């Protein structure tokens, strides 16, 4: 029995290490992406109104940053338990059945995210074969969309980690590795 506890604790520590590492990377990507987009937009507005000349690459750069923020953000939202949920039936269930549902939901979502990851790799491959480049920045279009499979993969990992967390932790139901499904009475 002592061996089981040690193995479980070691496995939990490994999951926490993976989760924390992904969290730091996502936070850096999201923060940097938002700051760069804001700076790019502000500098372009100043250039347009003060110098009567806007930067030719500003729109393309913002599109790249929007893709980065969107697909880095889906993993972050999964980690924080912030994705939209339709939970009328789920909320009416007893805790043990909610846990079973959450394991099923997070496992299925993880599988879907890994499937989207696979298909997005095929899309990136087609973009690479097309040889298209962005007109202003003169970089290959596929580089713009590299964040799509990365985001799907990280989100798939996040939901899989939530599945494992719900399997390991016997007492609580986890919406994500960080968020426990709790209900508070409103006064």
TrEMBL record:
Transmembrane residue ranges: 28-51, 63-79, 100-119, 139-161
Bilayer topology annotation: Multi-pass membrane protein
Stretches assigned to the Tripartite ATP-independent periplasmic transporters DctQ component domain: 37-165
Domain of life: Bacteria
Subcellular location(s) of the protein: Cell inner membrane
Keyword annotations from UniProtKB, A to Z: Cell inner membrane, Cell membrane, Membrane, Transmembrane, Transmembrane helix, Transport
Coiled-coil region(s): none
Keyword Protein biosynthesis: no
Family, as annotated: Belongs to the TRAP transporter small permease family.
Listed name of the protein: C4-dicarboxylate ABC transporter permease
Annotated source species: Malaciobacter canalis
Lineage per the UniProt record: Bacteria, Pseudomonadati, Campylobacterota, Epsilonproteobacteria, Campylobacterales
